[in-house]
Amino acid sequence: MTTVLDLQHVTVQRAGRDLLDDVSWQVDDDQRWVVLGPNGAGKTTLLNVASAQLHPTRGTVDILGERLGRVDVFELRPRIGFASSANNARIPPTETVLDVVLTAAYGVTGRWREAYEDEDVARAHTMLHDWRLESLADRAFGSLSDGERKRVQIARAVMSDPEILLLDEPTANLDLGAREELLQLLGEYAVAPGAPALVSVTHHVEEIPRNFTHALLMKDGRVIRQGPINQVIISERLSRLYDLPLVVAETDGRYTARADLV
Ligand SMILES: Nc1ncnc2c1ncn2[C@@H]1O[C@H](COP(=O)(O)OP(=O)(O)OP(=O)(O)O)[C@@H](O)[C@H]1O
Predict the structure, then answer these.
(1) Fewest CB atoms within 10 A around its CB: which of 31, 42, 72, 197?
(2) Is the ipTM of this complex over 0.85?
(3) CATH superfamily of 3-259
(4) Which of 10, 12, 19 has the most ligand 1 atoms within 8 A of CB, as the residue to mutate?
């Protein structure tokens, strides 16, 4: 077991506000985390720190054994997979799905004059197969549905064989079928041999994939609770998080929540 993320007393201040407030959190390589919390809780800010995009105002951040502030982030970032809708804007809409995934091997978006190794092309096809994108290989990224784009973002993030994979709301805006398809893939990936540590931000307990092991609850920039998922995603804890009486249930590794307002 290796610790891949280690945040100690991390505070991020912007415009006089604490977006993160004294956050301490450790992720080991065999753990799969879900991060849950209301709008504005600081979840995306936390992922931005964990992906070496943002430095803390106070506290220490070690990612893959390297201390932020001491390491060259341009060497560190290729070791971190980060799939987020915010990255969509960087992908040229005319780029083919195959090229969107393939260019990840070179840390660029937009194919230009790179010469690709056969090995990389073969790996890109494997990624398309694993994330059920093979039939879309030649389609322009800009022509895809939201569900297809989400899978392309993840395939791209996984292409460079990251040591930690961060997912920001991977199932947001998906219809029921697309959501369930992606949750199935993520649940399988969570236990796939050689899969990296996973951290997935979500708004809904229904969107937690199977086989996730840990949960972190956030509110107002602070960690409210963290630990093994079956001790955190429970009625009492979520009711406190959302200031609402909630009934949380787990069936076959999937969760549901509803207000208990009868
Ligand atoms: N650069 C910034 N300057 C000032 N405030 C910011 C900045 N970036 C984010 N915030 C604020 O910090 C808070 C946390 O934002 P963040 O995006 O991390 O929350 P979140 O939990 O991901 O929210 P959501 O679920 O709505 O996506 C929000 O109130 C947001 O408005």
Answers:
(1) 72
(2) yes
(3) P-loop containing nucleotide triphosphate hydrolases (3.40.50.300)
(4) 19
